[in-house]
Automatic annotation (TrEMBL):
<keyword id="KW-1133">Transmembrane helix</keyword>
<feature type="transmembrane region" description="Helical">
    <location>
        <begin position="7"/>
        <end position="25"/>
    </location>
</feature>
<protein>
    <recommendedName>
        <fullName>Stage III sporulation protein AF</fullName>
    </recommendedName>
</protein>
<keyword id="KW-0472">Membrane</keyword>
<keyword id="KW-0812">Transmembrane</keyword>
Length: 148
């Protein structure tokens, strides 16, 4: 109840201040610009409790997410990345005419860098061809395990 009383008092004072300032304006060229500024002042004053309460709510939500644990979040990100990389690599292999199932396992080092831990390709194609294509595609010497 006290907050409501404080809000009504603040809005009333903003309206009174606006009215007094409008009385001091004498030229008609300045009236439209000044009225706009004063109207915005009243709106900001009237909406300040809404903005303050929504800001507090957002901050509480962020703190809850931060408390959820960085390890779980890191594992989830790695899992999604593994699925996306596997799907992209399967599409690239299919574009080259190689039907394959790809399984990628990523690991995160202590420094925060993500590396490929395991790359398994299940295919009936020539393993050397698959290895060389993947290494050329990723421009790195990643170890590829091919299973027929």
């Amino acid at each position: 109840m006290e907050q409501l009383r404080q809000w009504v008092l603040t809005v009333s004072l903003a309206c009174i201040t606006t009215g007094i300032l409008q009385q001091f304006i004498s030229t008609k060229k300045q009236i439209s610009g000044i009225k706009l500024v004063l109207t915005l002042y009243i709106l900001v004053t009237a909406l300040s409790p809404v903005v303050d309460s929504s800001w507090d709510w957002q901050m509480e939500e962020v703190s809850v997410v931060a408390d959820a644990g960085s390890l779980d979040t890191q594992q989830e990100i790695l899992s999604v990345s593994e699925q996306n990389l596997s799907g992209q690599l399967e599409k690239e292999l299919l574009a080259k005419g190689i039907q394959a199932e790809v399984e990628i396992q990523l690991k995160c080092s202590e420094s925060g860098e993500v590396e490929v831990d395991q790359l398994i390709v299940k295919t009936s194609a020539d393993p050397d061809t698959v290895r060389s294509y993947i290494q050329a595609l990723w421009e790195t010497d990643v170890e590829v395990t091919c299973i027929s």
